C-alpha cells in the first residue's frame, strides 16, 4: 500500500433527529439537497477538489441509501485501486462487537483502515454540512505552524456561539482555550467540526482514550490534547458554511440557492459539486405552466405553477397546482389543483388532487416542539396524502394516510399524523 500524505475520515453515521420525519428512514447525510444533490456530496466533492483521493465514510444509522449513493465513488473520481472511497460501518471483531458510540470512538474503531495508508495527516469531517472548502489550504496552514491539531473555525454571532465548541486564540492563532458549548462564550470563533491531526498525535490520543465511553472529539480528544500542551491552531474560514441540522435551517439553505445572486453558488466551474444521478431524461415544462425563481430537477414534469421553490428529479406537479416557497424531493407526484406553501415533501410521496399543504396560521407543535417550531409543513418520504384534504402549518405527516385520518378533511396547524410502524 502506497503511503498517503493525508486521508479523510468522513463521519456520516448520524441520524439528524432534528430533521424529524425527513430522517425517519434515512441518515441525515443522505437527505436530498438543492434538487439534485445529497448533503454528503458537498464534503465528498470538497475532498476530490482538494486533491484528497482516499476517503473513509463511517456509516451507522439507516445506511442503505448512503451506501447505494456512494457506491464505488465513480461520480467523485474516487473509484481508485489505491485509496478511493471506502464505506466503513461498525463490524464484529474477534474480541467485541459495538456500535460507534461517539465521533472519536468511530475513528478509533477504524485505526486499522488508517494504518493501511500510514498517512502523515488525517482530516476529520462531518457528512452533514453544506459548504465549499479547499482542505489543501488548511493543510498548508497546519504544516506552516508545525501543528499537532488544526481546527477549522468560523466567526459566528456571539449570541449563537453557545451552540458550538468555541476557541480562544493568541495573535498567532494558537489555541489557548477550547470550550465545548459554553453557557457564556468568551469568543465567537466556533469550531466547524473539521480537524486536521498529525497522524501519530491522533493515533496516540485515540488509544489513550479508548475506554472513554461515547468518546467525542469536542468533549474528549481536544481537551485531552490541550491538557498535554499539544500545538493546537485555529484555521479561520470565512466562506459559506451551513449546518442544515434543523428543519428551518435546511429549508433556508435550499431557498438561498434560488436567490437572484445566490450566497452559495452551485454552478462554479472551478469548484464543481459532484453527485450520483444516473441517466435521467430532461425535465418537461408544459405550455400552460409558470416557473419563477426555482430549481427544477431532471426528469420532472411541471403542468402547474412553481414559485421560489426547489424541485427534485422525476417530480410531477399536476395541472392547476401552485407550489410556493417549498421543497419537493425526487420521485414525488403532486396531483391537480393543489396548493403548497412553505412545505417540505420528501422523496417518493403521492399527493392527491385538490390538496392544500401549509394553510392557516402557525400553532405550536403538539407532537415535538423541539423539532417542529416553524411555519413549515413536513411530509416524510413514501407518504400518501389523499385527495381533498388540507394540512396546516408546523405539521408532520408520515405514512400512508387516508381521508379518515383528517378531522373534517383538515390536519390543524401544530398537529401530526404518524402512521403505526413509521418512525418520526
Q: Can you tell me the overall shape?
A: globular
Tell me, rounded to a whole number, the average pLDDT: 90
Distance between the termini: 44 Å
Question: Uncertain segments of ≥5 residues (pLDDT<50)?
Answer: none
Total helical segments: 8
Number of strands: 33
The fraction of residues in strands falls at 25-35%
Please state the structural category: alpha/beta
Helix content: 10-25%
Q: What do these coordinates show?
A:
It is a single chain. This protein is 17% helix and 28% strand. The two termini are 44 Å apart. The chain contains eight helices and 33 strands. The mean pLDDT is 90. β4, α2 (64-70) and β5 form a beta-alpha-beta unit. Strands 1, 4, 5, 6, 8, 9, 10, 11 and 12 form a nine-stranded mixed β-sheet that branches. By secondary structure, the chain is an alpha/beta fold.
What would the keywords be for this entry?
single chain; 424 residues; alpha/beta; nine-stranded mixed beta sheet; 17% helix
Write the layout of secondary structure elements.
Layout: E1 6-11, E2 32-33, E3 37-38, H1 41-49, E4 54-58, H2 64-70, E5 84-88, H3 103-108, H4 111-117, E6 121-126, E7 129-131, H5 135-144, E8 149-155, E9 165-169, E10 175-180, E11 189-198, H6 199-208, H7 217-227, E12 232-236, E13 241-243, H8 247-256, E14 284-285, E15 290-292, E16 295-296, E17 301-302, E18 305-307, E19 310-311, E20 316-317, E21 322-324, E22 327-328, E23 333-334, E24 339-341, E25 343-345, E26 350-351, E27 356-359, E28 377-379, E29 384-385, E30 390-392, E31 395-398, E32 410-411, E33 416-418
Parallel strand pairs: 1-4, 1-6, 4-5, 8-12, 14-17, 15-18, 16-19, 17-20, 18-21, 19-22, 20-23, 21-24, 22-25, 23-26, 24-27, 25-28, 26-29, 27-30, 28-31, 30-32, 31-33
Antiparallel strand pairs: 2-3, 6-11, 7-13, 8-11, 9-10, 9-11
